[in-house]
Amino acid sequence: MSDTTGLSEELQRSVDGFKWAKEEITTLTEGLSPEKFNWRPSEKQWSVGECIEHLNQTGYSLGEALSTGIDSAFMAGETGDGPFSYSWFGNWFAKAAGVQQNPNKGKVKAPKLYVPSKSELDPAETIQRFEELQDLLIEITQKAQGLDLKKVKVTSPAVKIVRLSLGVWLKMLPDHQRRHFDQANRVKEEMF
């Protein structure tokens, strides 16, 4: 799925993850009526639609912070060549937000900013926003080429005390999307 855009391997992996999600959203939601798109297995579990809306809320909010951080970093001359290595906390955070080996163990509650506000979501609108988000995240990732991905720090819009390297955020986002695609697929299994 990679291409030759001149991106570093690290950034290309993220771009490939966003391209995968944009393609996979069709498979994930194919054949779901609005009722099934919004169906919850229990009051404490999200629907397929809520999983996608959570990714929309997270992605658009973080995307804005990342874009601002990238612009500021270029103005400050924070350039560098990789490969980059990240802090223990950054690596732990990226892994914790990503795909879980055992999804029933070690659940992390989403910050309030990223919790879907309604359960009756319009499938076409939610999916379109998600597809547009992938294009935005690809653009942001490509824009980061040439920056010192370890040195440039971006504060979480949801939890202000969390300030991570740009590279950690860009690594975490595609993995976080896969995590919630897995969650949505488990909802579909319970549905049928």
What is the strand and helix layout of this fold?
Layout: H1 9-29, H2 34-37, H3 48-76, H4 88-97, H5 123-143, E1 153-155, E2 163-165, H6 166-191
Antiparallel strand pairs: 1-2
Helix pairs in contact: 1-5, 1-6, 3-5, 3-6, 4-6
Please characterize this protein's 3D structure.
It is built from six helices and two strands; from the N terminus they run H-H-H-H-H-E-E-H. It has one domain: dinb family like domain (Four Helix Bundle (Hemerythrin (Met), subunit A)). The relative contact order is 0.24. Helix 1 (9-29) packs antiparallel against helix 5 and helix 3 (48-76) packs parallel to helix 5. A hairpin with a 7-residue loop joins strand 1 and strand 2. Strands 1-2 form a two-stranded antiparallel sheet. It has 192 residues and is mainly alpha-helical. The longest helix has 29 residues, at 48-76. It has helices at 9-29, 34-37, 48-76, 88-97, 123-143, 166-191; strands at 153-155, 163-165. The mean pLDDT is 91.
